[in-house]
Amino acid sequence: MSCKSSKVAFDPTSTKKEYFSFGSGGGFTGKVIKYYLTKDGILYTKDGEDIKKAGMAPKAIVNQLFQNFTGLGLDKIELNDPGNKYSFIESQSKGTTYKLQWGKNPLENKNVETFYSILMDVVKKINLSSQKS
């Protein structure tokens, strides 16, 4: 018998924290790459069933992202247009979930793509800084 701890780094189903989940999936393998960014700046990566802490995002950027999501009206958009390959952004805030997914057709609202790019830049910067240490 193993006594290994089963403490999960982050559990999106039970957390009270506000967060974004975002990533992409589909294609030949159907693999989904998923990230979680909490309002307190912690970035987690999901690989299979495992969720691991990847690093910390700058607080100023995280605050700006949370403000921009509603400021740009992304919480008012209905976007459920996944294709064979798709991207997604989900916001969990004050008990409400907003989900945007796309990939089948070009986006009409370029703010969605820009917001997604900024989220992915945060991931790249954290991954680069963790490789240097």
Would you mind describing this structure in some detail?
The protein is α+β, with helices and mostly antiparallel strands and 133 residues long. The radius of gyration is 15 Å and the shape is globular. Helix 1 (59-71) runs antiparallel to helix 2. Strand 1 (19-26) and strand 2 form a beta hairpin. The chain has a domain at 41-53 and 63-98 and 109-127. It contains 2 helices and 7 strands; from the N terminus they run E-E-E-E-H-E-E-E-H. 27% of the residues lie in helices and 35% in strands. It has helices at residues 59-71, 110-132, and strands at residues 19-26, 33-38, 42-47, 50-56, 79-81, 85-93, 96-102. Mean pLDDT is 90; it is low at 1-5. The chain has a 7-stranded mixed beta sheet with strand order 4-3-2-1-6-7-5, with helices on one face.
